[in-house]
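note to self — DONT lose this again. spent like an hour looking for the file last time. sequence + predicted structure for the chain T wanted, 64 res
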Amino acid sequence: MKFYELDNALQEAIIAAEKPVRVRIAVDFTGKGDVESVFDQDIWEADVDGLKEAAGGTSARGEV
């Protein structure tokens, strides 16, 4: 896994934690691509990590 340095603006925003983060959570219970969205008010806690892939792009993994 390759790690990247954060630029100063992003680092400051993370530390300040002043801006809300909005996420959309959808679950595919059947594995057939039929997703059910989760309403914002139903989410009590979420822990999400984003990784920049060495081949390009990003991926995110989380626990809700």
